[in-house]
Design brief:
The protein has 12 helices and no strands. The chain is an all-alpha fold. The protein has one domain (about 5-325): Mitochondrial carrier fold, CATH 1.50.40.10. It starts with a helix and ends with a helix. Helix content is about 70%, strand content about 0%.
């Protein structure tokens, strides 16, 4: 099994575990990012309070709305990213060694090269997996309508202004989200928010650049001191620090992406309908100010940092276990193949 495939599978496994644990926070963060009801803006409820309100009004299942496609998306995203990251990283390492032979550099991959490796991997990942995340966003932000309600379920105040009647509305599932996206914009709708998402490639690029740099320095210090390798706990905190720094810088792009992927209001207030990236930016600046680009940041920071830390720690452990298994199997095969 190739090193790229091992890292790809380990990244997918780590991503799934991290996603399951932190998903309710992601749902709340996405709703906060796409919130445009001025009455709710005045109330400014916290993340925990919003979780309790969501459970009370729509049930526990809404915390995990879109979990299935999200797990598929996470596995695909992490698998694709780590697979191509490892391939491009190997090419960069070979290039660095060749450059050293020519008297250029010290034979190691520099920070700029690491950034390019992460960016290329991220672009491929975005182009392949964006349709999955469009569906996930729709499912996370869909508000369960009151029974027998004729109000638009998209509007946040529908839950407050409409009396609950006897008939339970049909569940909103993945097929509903897919049909909704296709009905609004056709096939191109599944790549909604592609531009800010591509620009957001800088987030994992920064994250992995920071992570690789800190991990490299820590390993060097340990080797000089004669200590054993980096522990899972240390990897956890390195991943958390790397994600924290990257998320703070790129958060406005995340809000913009969510706004473009959520269901657009087809009638009524034009402030709730975005024709594209530039239109969304202009309307957000005009009607919400710069603070609009940082909605839900506290919830997203907590979710992203925790998920990234879990991902890195789990991924490194999975890689270690798989390599130990493969090495053990290889030694066992070589022993049994020796002539007696």
């Amino acid at each position: 099994m190739s090193d790229a495939l091992i890292n790809g599978l380990a990244g997918a496994g780590g991503g799934i575990i991290a996603q399951i644990i932190t998903y309710p926070l992601q749902t709340v963060a996405t709703r906060q990012q796409t919130e445009r009801d001025p009455r709710k803006e005045r109330r400014k409820i916290g993340t925990l309070e919003q979780i309790f309100q969501l459970v009370k009004q729509e049930g526990w299942k809404r915390l995990y709305g879109g979990l299935l496609p999200s797990l598929v998306g996470t596995a695909a995203s992490q698998g694709v990213y780590y697979y191509f990251y490892q391939i491009f990283r190997k090419k960069a390492e070979v290039s660095a060694v060749e450059q050293r032979k020519k008297g250029i550099g010290n034979g190691t991959v520099g920070m700029l090269a690491s950034l390019w490796v992460a960016a290329l991997s991220g672009c491929i990942n975005v182009l392949i997996t964006t349709p999955i995340w469009v569906v996930v966003t729709r499912m996370q932000t869909h508000i369960k309508p009151p029974k027998n309600s004729k109000s638009d379920p998209l509007l946040p105040d529908a839950l407050e202004d409409t009396a609950v009647c006897a008939t339970e509305p049909p569940p909103y599932g993945m097929s509903n989200a897919i049909q909704e996206v296709y009905g609004e914009s056709g096939v191109s709708g599944f790549w909604g928010g592609l531009l800010p998402t591509l620009i957001m490639v800088s987030n994992p690029s920064m994250q992995f650049m920071l992570y690789e740099s800190m991990l490299k320095k820590l390993k060097y210090r340990y080797s000089v001191a004669g200590k054993s390798g980096v522990t899972a706990v240390e990897v956890f905190f390195l991943g958390a620090l790397a994600k924290l720094g990257a998320t703070v810088v790129t958060y406005p792009l995340l809000v913009l992406k969510s706004r473009l992927q959520v269901k657009q209001a087809s009638a009524g207030d034009s402030r709730h309908h975005y024709k594209g990236t530039s239109d969304a930016v202009l309307k957000m600046v005009r009607y919400e100010g710069m603070s609009g680009f940082y909605k839900g940041m506290s919830a997203k920071l907590f979710q992203s940092v925790l998920a990234a830390a879990l991902l890195f720690a789990t991924k490194e452990e999975l890689v270690r276990v798989v390599r130990l298994f493969i090495d053990g199997k290889s030694r066992s095969n070589s022993t049994t193949s020796k002539p007696s």
